[in-house]
Amino acid sequence: MPFFISQGHKLHYEVKGEGLPIFFIHPPAMGSAAFYHQRRLAHDFKVVLMDARGHGFSQAGRETLTISEWAEDLHNLADVLGLDRVLLCGYSSGGSVALEFALRWPERTAGAALAGGFPEVRTTLLHREFEIGMWITEKGWMGLLAGMLSIGNAAQAEHRERIAAAVKRSSAPLVHSLYESGLHYSCTAGLPSLSRPLLLLYGSRDWYVHYYQYMFYKYAVQAPKDIVMVHGVGHQIPTLQPASYNAAVAQFARQLEQGGVPFKTLT
Fold first, then answer.
1. How many helices (H) and strands (E) does the chain have?
2. How many C-beta atoms lie closer than 10 Å to residue 114's C-beta?
3. How would you classify residue 212: left for phi > 0, otherwise alpha for psi between -120 and 50, otherwise beta?
4. Any idea which fold 3-257 has?
5. pLDDT tens track of the chain, all 267 residues?
6. Rounded CA separation 160/155 (Å)
7. How far apart are CA 90 and CA 83, in angstroms?
8. Where is the signal peptide (predicted)?
């Protein structure tokens, strides 16, 4: 089980396959177990999974974590692995980490694919989701959170068990701090400078984040971008509609590998 040291913390990661490196960035609490179905992309690409600090098999350390610190950990992992450019695939608030990375290190970013992504929390329903996560973790009820996330994100028993185990291993104070950081994080002001290709994926039933696609259209004016609406699913695109998600990511990655701009700049 490989580990590396970043900002004084021992962090767990996995690397499988060859080709364009794809960093999959999980939501709070779930760890890399969220991307159980994405490992099959290693047949064509270099799949890189990392448990964020205090998640899964990674050390918690001081039990606080911000979006910015998580992005720096990923940048350090890219250095350790000798990767010049990576495709960043963020799921839910993992997309905030992808955006932070892309804005701070555009020269290391091949592109970003965001599943249910948002540049900041601006709507009431999404704000409530973060508050619920903060309330549960403040109480230390990781068993409850494990049940909620595993049932909501997995159709297969094995995947449910993997997610539940990962959540239970995660540090409640650290996950609480990450929910808090995600709630207050905003990169909207930086979006006009974002130049790397951007793929936005939303579930057709994920009504409480549909608003955010318009923010990307409005502010990310330089970035070539496209939106994929995945039918028959809410927020859990990578976990409940993995075939559609993997196909979209693979197409995006192949286009990036070929050195072209995957789609036109949409303004």
1. 9, 8
2. 27
3. alpha
4. Rossmann fold (3.40.50)
5. 899 999 999 999 999 999 999 999 999 999 999 999 999 999 999 999 999 999 999 988 777 899 999 999 999 999 999 999 999 999 999 999 999 999 999 999 999 999 999 999 999 999 999 999 999 999 999 999 999 999 999 888 999 999 999 999 999 999 999 999 999 999 999 999 999 999 999 999 998 899 999 999 999 999 999 999 999 999 999 999 999 999 999 999 999 998 766 665 443
6. 7
7. 18
8. none
The DSSP string of 161-193 is HHHHHHHHHS-HHHHHHHHHHHHH-B-GGGGGG
β pairing state of 3-6 and 21-25: unpaired
| DSSP sequence for 53-120 | TTSTTS--TTS---HHHHHHHHHHHHHHHT-S-EEEEEETTHHHHHHHHHHH-GGGEEEEEEES--SB
- The radius of gyration of the chain's CA atoms, rounded to the nearest angstrom, is 17
Question: For the chain, what are the domain ranges?
Answer: 3-257
CB 24 within 8 A of CB 35: yes
- Angle, helices 67-81 vs 172-184, to 10°: value is 110
Nearest CA to 133 out of 177, 77, 176, 88 is that of 176
Tokens 């196909």 correspond to what residue?
A: 247
Residue 10: DSSP 8-state: E
Q: Which of 92, 91, 111 is nearest to 102 (CA)?
A: 111
Q: What are the tokens at 26?
A: 């999980």
Which tokens sit at 148? 């909620």
